[in-house]
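Predict the assembly for these two chains.
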Amino acid sequence: MRSLIRRTSPDALPRDPAPSRMGYRYQRMMLTPGFRGTVRIGVPILLILIIAGSWYSKPENRAALAATIEEAKQSFQERPQFMVQSMNVVGGDLSVLTEVAALLPSEFPVSSFALDLEKIRTEIEALDPIKSASVRVGQGGALEVQLTPRVPVALWRDGTVLRLIDADGVQSGAIMARAERLDLPLIAGDGAEENIAQALRLFAAAGPLIDRVRGLVRMGERRWDMVLDRDQRILLPSENPVAALERVIALNDAQDMLSRDVAVVDMRNTNRPTLRMNEEAAEALRRGNTTISTNEAGN
Amino acid sequence: MGDLYDSQRAMRQMRKAAMQRGVVAILDVGTSKIACLVLRFDGPEQFRSSDGVGSLAGQSQFRVIGAATTRSRGVRFGEIDAMQETERAIRTAVQAAQKMANVRVDHVIACLSGARPRSYGLDGTLDVSGGMVTEQDISQVMASCDVPDYGADREVLHAQPVNFALDHRSGLADPRGQVGNQLKTDMHMLTVDATAIHNLFYCIKRCDLELAGLASSAYVSGMSSLVEDEQELGAACIDLGGGSTGISVFMKKHMIFADSVRMGGEHVTSDISMGLQIPAATAERIKTFYGGVVATGMDDREMIEIGGDTGDWEHDRRTVSRAELIGIMRPRVEEILEEVRERLDAAGFEHLPGQQIVLTGGGSQIPGLDGLASKILGQQVRLGRPLRVQGLPQAAIGPAFSSAVGLTLFAANPQDEWWDFEIPAENYPARSLKRAVKWFKDNW
């Protein structure tokens, strides 16, 4: 009798399926490191790129993305921690402060991301009266500006304008009349501002003459002329002018030279100081000389 | 012969390339199973500078990282019979082993058990006239061997120099650098049917693999299951396979004879199948579970259900006693062993100093076989199991895998063969050079 229930015979051959040729090749290909790497990493990346690219290629998507990014940036930057509430400018006088205030943001609060501190600092330092400045956002969201003004040490006459010059030779402003700053010495001439230190030394060395000094004139961008009142000039050499000036002062002390009718004291050749007298004085001298000689001739 | 000589050289190059890549597959194409092992050559000994055999008999340089066995299909008597089927079986084994190893294998070293191997002993003489023996002399002395006419349809599978003699001193392993007058060599050459090799080549090529070496399964199972002193003193390895039984005789660590008997375990199975009128699969199963060659009184009482699928109760409830089963198996096993005995006698095995006989292969697992074999083959019979290699799974350490394991040793350090030496200088094709010169003359 045939059994109705089909039993799987234990003696049946074990299932032993052979891979198909294509399956075998596929498996071998997948075991190749380069190919496997491409499939496992390259293909997903490519898919992601394609999807992202197709999404990005639509202008409305691009706009939406830009808007989202902008919004996120805005909301981050406008957090209260980053807001600048006030400003505090230290140093400098009132006229400087008004100039500086024009360069600083006018409306508060403003996000500190919106402030370009370095740019503000450069702009402030570009102002004439400011030597240096430090700009920072300090405690409590205050914009702190620390100014170091330039200190003028001399006046420089440039045509009709009188400019204030500090020790570095940088002009820090202009004034209308000499009378405004009588405390500062006056210099003039091309290249005068580049040798301000020497000029200051000369002024310091002027000593007893200082009341009579009108100013220093740079001649030929090479040497100084010291101009005194009564149109007197002391021509100083380009080398070692202070010593020459001291010699003039010594001569003046000894012989009261400058109170006489001398137009120019020429110290350009230090071995041979030369005087040029005014015309009348020269005339008088010549006359005196002639009188003496005729007297001698008459005797 | 030049054809195979070249292809053997090409295979050696391929083997070198496989070593560079570090991964090579071992394929044992047998009648009952196809085994594939994947070896990785990156052990600590891989870059050892000194020569000689390293630790663990040089096996620590490789590791088995993948192993797979599949039922063989389309192979009869150790020869490929149905190419498509065999190709599928090879694909199955290789794919499973690759999957286990998780690396792609491109080079395969294969062995085949059948193909009617025939051994030849060759000898050659060269007059070196008092000079020092150089590598070139060795190539020349091997080239001077008198090669017998082994037939057009046969190919040389192995050609190993087994002995060198310089003047009156024989038994030299390496005569290079020695001074003498006359250099002699003895060479063992094994030829097999060309068609079997070509079929195997073709099957492996169809699986997108490159053949990096070819060996006789009798030789490699001897390499794996004979211990060193047996190989040195002389021993025979009997590889009882599924469709053929391989015989290899070793002496002084060289194979000096190999043969195969075209009978094996599958013949025992078919005897059982025919004798008991049961399907081959059932026969195989009861052979492996209850088989034996020595019956005892107890076996008369042990009844084996042999079953059936016909629906006839009488037929499906048949039983046989184990004694009956043994009665069927024993004559066939005896026949195989007698045949082996004949082959060994023909080879002059009795003249060897060592008479050790080692039984290995899947058939050697029949209980009581060693007792039967010692009656037929001689007193010194033992059952051999293959050497242990690193990483071999538990399922593949039995005697059925001795040729696969031997093939791993063959892959790791193959013996010098004829084609490993330089081509003798006078055999270089002179014509090609002449043609090159002629071409230059014609064109300039």
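Residues 278 and 308 of chain B are 7 Å apart (CA to CA). The radius of gyration of chain B is 24 Å.
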